[in-house]
Amino acid sequence: MLTDCLDNFIECLEQHRYFDAHEALEVIWFPRRFEDDNEMKLLKGFINAAVSFELKKRGREEASKRVWKNYLKYKKLLTKINSPYLDRYKEISIYLDDFDIITR
Fold first, then answer.
1. Would you state the torsion angle of the CA atoms of residues 43, 45, 50, 52, taken in this order, to the nearest 10 degrees?
2. Would you state the pLDDT for residue 101?
3. How far is residue 61 from each of residues 51, 64, 73, measured CA to CA in Å?
4. Closest by alpha carbon to 5, among 55, 39, 56?
5. Which residues contact 103 (CB under 8 A, 6 or more apart)?
6. Model pTM?
7. Count of CB atoms within 10 A of residue 97's CB?
8. Distance of CA 73 to the CA centre of its chain
9. Could you give all domains of the chain from N- to C-terminal order, each with its CATH number?
10. 54, 23 Cβ separation under 8 angstroms
């Protein structure tokens, strides 16, 4: 299920459906949001990246930059998680960083 959510997340970003990208990962993260789990925190970071893009799309530059900083904070967790999805997470992180350069 997580693989499908990650694929959907990227697909939504590519289609500039940032709110939907946020929702694609929220179904995994939300029920586990209170866990002290670095993998869930990383997913929260990816959600923050999508929110940042949506805010940018709506012309809310400063809010977008603040939320992007949250993504960057959680991105650091890539070095601290042990997950079968780690390679996919790294790919998504690179994609988000590249996407940010294009959209800013």
1. 170
2. 67
3. 12, 5, 19
4. 39
5. 53, 56
6. 0.94
7. 13
8. 12
9. 2-103 (1.10.3450)
10. no
